[in-house]
Fold Methyltransferase type 11 domain-containing protein.
Amino acid sequence: MSEIVVTGERFIPESQDDELELEHMERYYTACRFVKGKVVLDAACGEGYGSYLLARTAKSVIGVDIDNRTIINAKEKYSDAENIQYIQGSVEKLDFIESQTVDVVISFETIEHVSEYIQLKFMSEIKRILKRDGLLIMSSPNKKEYTDRYHFHNHFHVHELYVEEFLDLLKTKFRNIRLYRQYLEVVCMIDKDENEETILYHKNKKRYQPEGKYVIAIASNADLPEQSLSMVSLHLREEYMPMLDELNYCRAEAIKCRNMVKQLETRLEDCMCQIDILKNERKLALEESERREKELEHRMDVINQICEEKADKENRLKLAEEELERRAAELVHRMDVINSLNEKVRILENDLKLSNEELDRRAAELEHRMDVINRLRK
């Protein structure tokens, strides 16, 4: 059998939570009175224990839950019940159930786990699958008592309802509605708002009007059945007075604890004030240290920058001196080349002069010979 992790989202009988067990068992044992020989839908069925209880008297039970792992576990755990079907599905779409085929729809602590939109879809599906004289038994946490009173938030709950909102939701599909309140006292009771003839003595005191931690409704478009609801106690062998003594002792201890807590809170406030002062002083010291550290870093940056600039200038000066020496050597070399070229030019000019003189001499000699030739021809 696969193991289900106890998260608080679903009730598991083996979870060792007596209060939760008392509340869930009372709801299902009460519902058993309405399902004898009936076709029943249990949505959402969780790990299947409630469907299993209903199946003892019902003709058949369909247990529906959105979590497939939970459904698999339910099939394995309650396989001995032949009149139960466990089906994985969502309450907003019960298309695997034909219209007007179900006598009783049970839905305990489910409506708050879905959005307002899905709540309306669920109600439409309930109306569709119920027979004309079918019955809905649905419970919902009373937001005023469950959440607001204790400033408690159940992160599994998506949209909780106040009693008036719960009634309005039921009225969208049903004409006849009766509300019962479920709350924990020495025993856990389910009773309706109207007084019954079975109550022999009733004091209507404002200081003691239990709102009910949960609201359980039965609704139908036919006449509502007259069923007296029961109570379940997990402490059958305990007597009232010892329990009351224990409660009084716990109350006294709680008062002592509250007083001690107040004293500790006062001391804590003083300590917190001292801590705040020390934190402030530490903060100022850290800020001063950071300021000086930043100032030192800035000065070091300036020094490093100056050193870098000095090294750069020295390097540039060295390069300039080397360049100057190179250029001076190059200038000397070029002057030597110029002087050498000038000497060559002088020599060439002298050679040219001699060549010109030789050319003039030869030209004069040529003219003389031409004159001689001309005379000889004559």
Summary: Confidence is low (pLDDT under 50) at residues 197-205. The first helix runs from residue 18 to 31. Residues 18-192+202-233 form a domain with the Rossmann fold fold (CATH 3.40.50.150).
